[in-house]
Write a structure and sequence with these properties.
binds nicotinamide-adenine-dinucleotide, 8 strands, binds SN-glycerol-3-phosphate, N-(1-d-carboxylethyl)-l-norvaline Dehydrogenase, domain 2, alpha/beta, 15 helices
Length: 337
């Protein structure tokens, strides 16, 4: 396998939130001709004129070569697209991009971590339906936007069923401080990223409620057990779950209140209603939308996911924190696995 040959030289980033802006800055600094699409004129103007995204990544000076646009036609010039909108907006964005590019067979790296409400589809399945000609890959793993934008060392998974396209993505994204590892396992990479967001809400609740570090460690380990049970049942590979996009991202997201999912849980643990916290935020907490979908998928498949069930019930207000803890602790004793 020859890694890193023939990078995509022209990149279009769909979404100018924190992660889209960090990835666009990474590509531009690596010398790629990079354009970033924003829904709003204000952010596009700021990026072009002040080299800053004051709404989503205020501390970071962006490269002056990065061009922002509100016109999806810019995607026609690209050799590769990074899709970085919230998971619930992915389908509409992909349909619009397909139209803008005339249904080109474009490499598209899916960077959102979530499962679609209503359909239960993963992002690569949404891509297949919304833009069947596109060549899908998944970029996932432990990576806070602010860390990547600052150039702090980061390692992630780039999953692509097509090895030659995957290695082109590696060559496109790799820098001295950003290290993507190749995997063919798109399903595993996606499931790890989507499920850890739900588990991070649970860890936040434990921290917000002051239940202690032992409880948090137990929750992470049992959460990982249920993530693995579900993902392996779907056909994901165990090594992907144990890797950066699975365990790696679970550890990061459950450990830091820099995570929007973890901090949402923290506020819930402090007694706030999830809906109120979500309503006052500008940024997305993907786990809140993914939790109920994951519960439905797990029930359909007969997979036991008690922590995910508890998070969904807490988010909807059906259950109080203390009731959820008591339910989890009083489940029948069983063999670990
Ligand atoms: N921020 C991170 O550190 C990080 C890291 C890795 C992965 N991700 C994933 O990347 C995805 C995007 O996260 P983010 O952090 O950039 O979110 P964000 O909340 O910072 O920004 C979301 C962006 O999407 C746009 N958007 C919102 N609704 C939209 C719609 N209906 N149609 C089109 N655009 C819409 C917003 O205007 C904004 O530009 C999420 O799935 C997240 O899990 C984030
Ligand atoms: O802020 P969060 O919870 O969306 O997490 C960001 C990234 O997914 C961490 O890898």
């Amino acid at each position: 396998m020859t890694i890193g040959r023939e990078p995509f030289e022209r990149i279009y980033v769909a979404g100018a939130g924190s992660w889209g802006t960090a990835l666009a800055a990474l590509c531009a600094r690596a010398g790629r001709q990079t354009s970033i699409w924003s829904r709003g004129e204000e952010i596009a103007g700021q990026i072009n004129e002040e080299h800053r995204n004051a709404t989503y990544l205020p501390e970071i000076e962006l490269p002056s070569t990065l061009r922002a646009t509100t016109d999806r036609a810019a995607a026609c010039e690209a050799e590769g697209i990074l899709l970085v909108v919230p998971a619930q907006a992915a389908r509409d964005e992909l349909v619009a991009l397909r139209e803008a590019t005339g249904g080109a067979a474009m490499p598209v790296a899916l960077c959102c971590k979530g499962i679609e409400r209503g359909t239960g589809r993963l992002m690569h399945q949404v891509l297949k339906e919304a833009w069947p000609e596109a060549l899908g890959a998944v970029l996932s793993g432990p990576s806070f936007a602010a860390d990547v934008a600052r150039g702090l060392p980061t390692a992630v998974t780039l999953a692509d069923p097509d090895e030659s396209c995957g290695t082109r993505w590696l060559g496109t994204l790799a820098t001295e401080t950003f290290r993507p590892y190749y995997s063919p396992d798109v399903l595993g990479a996606e499931l790890g990223g989507a499920i850890k967001n739900v588990l991070a809400i649970a860890c936040g609740i434990v921290e917000g409620r002051g239940l202690g570090e032992s409880a948090k460690a137990a929750l992470m380990a049992r959460g990982f057990a249920e993530a693995k049970r579900f993902a392996l049942g779907m056909g994901a590979k165990p090594e992907t779950l144990a890797g950066l996009s699975g365990l790696g991202d679970l550890i990061l997201t459950c450990s830091s209140r820099q995570s929007r999912n973890m901090s949402l849980g923290y506020e819930m643990g402090q007694g706030r209603r999830a809906a109120d916290v979500i309503a006052e935020r500008r940024t997305v907490s993907e786990g809140a939308a993914t939790a109920p979908v994951l519960v439905s998928l797990a029930r359909e498949r007969g997979t036991d996911m008690p922590i995910t069930e508890a998070v969904a019930a807490l988010l909807s207000g059906e259950l109080a924190v203390d009731e959820a803890i008591a339910d989890l602790m009083n489940r029948p004793l069983k063999i670990e696995g």
